[in-house]
Amino acid sequence: PEWKLVMDMDLSKVSKGISNTAKPVSEEDLLWCGFLDRYHEGYDKCSTRAPTVLKRFENKLFYPVSTMDDPVIEKFAIEGKGNVFATDAILAHLMTCPRSVYPWDIVIQKLPGSGALFFDRRDSSQFDYLTVNETANAPPTTMKADDDPEGINTPERLSLESTAINHNFSQQILKDPRGGKATRKNFDLPNPFFDEEDNDGMEPASVAFRYRKFDLGDDIEIVCRTELHGVVKKKAVPGSVSAPEDQYTTAFALNEYFNSMSPYSKTNVPAAGLINWREKLDTQRGAVLATELKNNAFKLAKWTAQSILADADQMKIGFVSRTTPKNPYEHLILATQFYRPRDFATQITLNEGSMWGIMRMLIGIFKDQPEGKYVLMRDPNKAVLKIFAVPPGTFEDEDEEEE
Predict the structure, then answer these.
(1) Which residues of the chain have pLDDT under 50?
(2) Where do the DSSP E strands lie in 207-299?
(3) Does pTM top 0.85 for this prediction?
(4) Sign (positive or negative) of CA dihedral 261, 264, 270, 272
């Protein structure tokens, strides 16, 4: 059984060849699961002069459960609630994929009968790990530097470090619900992936899974599991009698590493062409963000798209740096900033219409294909997207090995 190339297209032309860039005809919430803790305002005050140590939350469980493994999505599919199913991570990835530099792949299953499309990821793929400086002029290299025998600055290690920082940051900036006041907000159903019996003192992280349906017209109805990370009190409007309402936020962390392992100094910049956060964050945050937008264009666009899909009111970005250049396990939060997802999208030239246009185009391609299994991938060596038709059992043995 062979992989058959269905089509390939230039990545740079993906967003240019889109005709329909209308936003969804309608969006609706289908179900809320999980819980959210409240944001701790103290983290607004983090600065390079008064940083906060990043803690590790080893008892919190995160669930990057893929589309086909999500029982709630399965239920909606059986009930015919939509005809395209995905997670926010997968949708956001595809919507912003023209910015990607590293290779990636998504598995698409087209079901017999209904023709429903499931956008999924391979079980053993690196899909859920964050990249670091993927879009920089000089991205991290796989070669270990002389002063880095452990290879802590190789893309793989940076990716693990960044992903851990992101998880820890999203939980640390929230108030502890055991602190007297009832701060936790519980939703209709508990976390669908958490098993009470089998938890060994672990608990789910503060995440609300908000299952949403987007009607794109032309008989395209996308059901997507989106994520929110916390609740923020909106500032009261002076003179207004109504209580300030709750706002929902997502939370992500950018992280700084250093090219040289020598002790921290003003001149030790992370890499050529980068600026030192400890020198610039308090006074020139815009410059730091501009550099990050250049070096992490794909990651930031993806976070923004995820926040828009989840209809988050705010998106919290943390700036997290290694405490010392040669230790990838100890970190400081040097600053945090709230952005409104749609305003931020404008700032990073992420066009919401194009995001939906890319999805319409991809869904259109698969609507014209026979039922079966497909792989959509970015070529590792050139900026080309390829779609392969693959035998139905492809990747299945990966799942069994894991179990």
Answers:
(1) 402-403
(2) 207-215, 221-228, 230-233, 246-256
(3) yes
(4) negative
